Amino acid sequence: MINKKIVICFLLFCTFTLVGCDNKNDWDYFDATVIELTDDKNILVELLDANREGQGEGAQAYVPTTLESDYTCPDMKVGNQIRVYYNGEMLETAPLRFEFIYDIDIFDEDGKLVIE
Prior knowledge:
1 helix
């Protein structure tokens, strides 16, 4: 009897965890401006605000355009303002590097986020 309850609780936990993993509201993110498109599937960006690691406005970072999710990376050009959703971890390099990127959205001309 107790084993069935444990199994049911475990299955419910796994279900809620998996469903929550694909929710952008649960991901860490930062806003940035694209300053360079590289040939190695990365973009160089300049942070527009401080992220949770304390890296402030103006810091530069390489962001991979190969996403760790079912989302597709939008076509970007230098000057685009973007929102980058990531796993909350960064590599302490200069410039910064973010290893696991879940999604990238672009802001339109009016400053509104275009979520695809």
